[in-house]
Amino acid sequence: MKLKLGCDPEVFLTDLHGQLIASCGKIGGTKAAPMPLPLGEGYCVQEDNVAMEFNIPAANRVEEFVESIGKTLKFLNDGVKESYGFTIGELASADFPDKELQHPAAQEFGCDPDFNAWTGKKNPRPRAPSPNLRSCGGHVHIGYNVKELGDDSPQRVVRCMDLFLGVPSVLMDKDEKRKQLYGKRGAYRVKPYGVEYRTLSNFWIFNPRLRQWVWENTHRAVDAVVAQFPVEEYSDQILDAIDNNNKDVANQLVKQLNLEVVNV
Fold first, then answer.
1. Dihedral sign from CA coordinates of 243, 247, 249, 254
2. Longest dimension (CA), the chain
3. Out of 100-114, 142-156, 187-201, which region has the weakest mean confidence (pLDDT)?
4. Per-domain residue ranges for the chain?
């Protein structure tokens, strides 16, 4: 099936000494009104809690997808360096200092609910043991022919995304604290063009090979839906692997089903 892929990753800012800096009031753009970037139609940036979030246009080819993320990261990194002396940090979660959490936007979490593709229930608003913990997602937006796959396709696509991307990510993503807030199995939002998969952190956006891995395994997940692969048979193992960060179970599934793990 022909797909279009986009993403809206979040990244943290740091000063030149590596200290975390909140984006609040510095970058511009909001959820309701993202700020366009001079990179072409569909490129935008916005403040999201303490993070900086960017959007790329939907890509038809893997080369577009990989390049769009890379050039947006470079443009934004150059811009915050020139304007503030900041840089983009390659972190998926971090505890921010109190002084960076004084802005009201730094206390806004999960304004729009997402859902669990395995239970059909709305996911609860995140609460972490540490009030200073913040995290960055690397959400994947999948556009496909919804009529062809059916009305329940978002849930079925996300379950297979959990298998082909969520499970291997347990072995690839070095961050484990983000799951105190976000990143549990089956997290998604329905979109007019398809679905948004919200389980992955931003770990994959910083390396071209990992961007390619996301592209290729998203296609494998949708192919599995088309082929009616019985992913529900592995529900308990997927839950344990992703939600509990159980690397042993993730390894078992990777070997059993020949899932792709990329080490960079």
1. positive
2. 52
3. 100-114
4. 4-94+114-257
